[in-house]
Amino acid sequence: MIRIGVVDDEKMFRDRISEIVVNVLKGEQVQTEIKKYADGTHFFEALSAGETFDILLADIQMAGMDGMELGRRIRRNSPGMYIIFITSYEEYAAESYRIEAFQYILKQDLESRLPGVIRELAYRLEEQEQEYRIVGNSVEKVKLFYKNIIYLYKSKGAKYVNYVTEEGIFRERISLESLLKELDSKIFIPVERGYVVNMKRICRISGDTLYLEKGYQVQVSRARLTMVKQEITRCWGGK
Q1: Secondary structure, 3-state, 129-145
Q2: CB crowding 145-171: b at 16 or more within 10 Å, else e
Q3: Where's the Response regulatory domain (predicted)?
Q4: Which of 100, 106, 94 is nearest to 59 (CA)?
Q5: Computed from CA positions of residues 198, 203, 205, 210, in that sequence, does the dihedral angle turn out positive or negative?
Q6: 8-state DSSP, 39
Q7: How do beta strands 82-87 and 188-192 pair?
Q8: How many CB atoms lie within 10 A of CB 141?
């Protein structure tokens, strides 16, 4: 299931963007949930109330919270969301890249460019859905998607790795060294002895502290700090 938010203060464009997305993903046989909002404030309120989205398609010039301010807030709180700005004005392109938007599409190019962008993101998200592991015991087992892991840790001398996720904490009896060989090194990075963080889930870094989604915080060792900052910049810039 791909969850998409469409934000535009003109109903005509909200409906047209949604129609294009539906038609594209219908051809790809991908399940989709689309929710439409007339401004950035209502979208951000939904996000703050617990709604989750994989993709945001947003106009830039809107009354109240405009698309750029919405994008900045999302980058602080939901850094893994793909942002696509759709606007009538070219002058916002540079700012959109500072916010690390995935794409910037002019409304006059909507019909020609949006289908290809949506297909690419659908492919990426489908790949992520295929990356998971089964954890649990003989009584209960859980399919744990890598993309939902915020960070993981293993205490010194412990036999279990703890996965901290959106849904809670899960355990698996496995060595951290073995697990690191399976995880995507472009996304997951060791930041301290026994601690590995999903860089897509980092909201900000201040000093030696990583501020993650859901209010979690993880400290980076002094020896790794420079490397970790470089990798976070690479990961975020690679959206």
Answers
A1: HCCEEEEECCCCEEEEE
A2: bbbbbbbbbbeeeeeebebbbeeeebe
A3: 3-122
A4: 106
A5: negative
A6: S
A7: unpaired
A8: 10
pLDDT per residue over 125-157, tens digit each? 887 776 788 887 767 888 888 888 999 999 888
pLDDT value, residue 239: 43
**Mean pLDDT by groups of 10 residues along the chain of 239 residues:** 93 95 85 93 91 92 88 83 87 66 88 93 80 80 88 91 92 91 90 94 92 93 94 73
Q: For residues 53 and 71, what is the distance between their CA atoms, to the nearest angstrom?
A: 13
- Residue 216 CA to residue 233 CA, distance in Å, equals 20
Q: Is 70 left (phi over 0), alpha (psi -120 to 50) or beta?
A: alpha
pTM of the model: 0.64
Query: What is the predicted pLDDT for the residue at 17?
Result: 96
| DSSP state string for 92-113 | GHHHHHHTT-SEEEEGGGHHHH
Exposure pattern of 217-231 as b/e (b: 16+ CB <10 Å)?
A: ebebeeebeeebeeb
Report the candidate in 142, 156, 157, 141 with the shortest Cα–Cα distance to residue 195. 156
What does each C-alpha distance from 102 to 48, 115, 148, 228 come to in angstroms?
22, 14, 20, 22
The arrangement of strands across the sheet holding 202-206 comes to 202-206, 209-212, 217-219
Tokens of 78: 């939901």
How far, in Å, CA of 126 to CA of 206, rounded?
33
